């Protein structure tokens, strides 16, 4: 095995940092579709989502845990980091600044694509989440991104209770149906986004019931990270 310092730069090692095990398979599949050459290393701390839900907000201790995870990934020779946990935007920004590697927030690329696909004026966007604690931070992140581009958007959000539990307990079809029903409850959206990486497999069913595009974050993230590393 090569030491981290001598890893082949033509075959980049990418750290995938997760706050739930449910995100691992969707992002693995997305890399397989779009960037199979990348060497992915998975880091999982599934207590992060639990701690955030209990606290109700990010704490300095949680932020430091993200910095520590990113620092570990950097020491292993990773050349980029993709976080798959959608409720931790400020912590991810702090981690990226600390290690100086190309670092992508989980929904950053999906938000960019949603804005690109929607009308410049009065865009109507929908955001569906199965982890309720992610909605405030993701909404703020998307609205801020739109403001930076001089855009105004009408954002509708939906939380899908019990869907994440269905997926965790092997009831994938029930998970997908709940998300599809939530998608159909949105009104006149130009683009609909699925907030969690773990929701990606529900995209075809959700799309079948809507005429507007339905985006999932893993595919958008892999393509954006590949492009970012090419210019790093």
Order of helices and strands: EHEHHEHEHEHEHHEHEH
Give the overall form: globular
Q: Uncertain segments of ≥5 residues (pLDDT<50)?
A: 1-7
Largest sheet strand order: 2-1-3-4
Structural class: alpha/beta
Descriptive overview:
- Helix 3 (60-75) crosses helix 4 (89-99) and helix 5 packs across helix 10.
- The protein has a 4-stranded parallel β-sheet, sandwiched between helices. A 4-stranded parallel β-sheet has the order 6-5-7-8, sandwiched between helices.
- It is an alpha/beta fold.
- The chain has helices at residues 24-34, 47-55, 60-75, 89-99, 108-117, 134-148, 163-168, 172-184, 203-208, 217-230; strands at residues 13-18, 39-44, 80-83, 103-104, 123-129, 153-159, 191-194, 214-216.
- Strand 3, helix 4 (89-99) and strand 4 form a beta-alpha-beta unit.
- It folds into 2 domains: 4-106 and 219-230, Rossmann fold (3-Layer(aba) Sandwich), CATH 3.40.50.1860; 108-216, Rossmann fold, CATH 3.40.50.
Task: Tell me briefly what this model is.
The protein has helices at residues 24-34, 47-55, 60-75, 89-99, 108-117, 134-148, 163-168, 172-184, 203-208, 217-230, and strands at 13-18, 39-44, 80-83, 103-104, 123-129, 153-159, 191-194, 214-216.
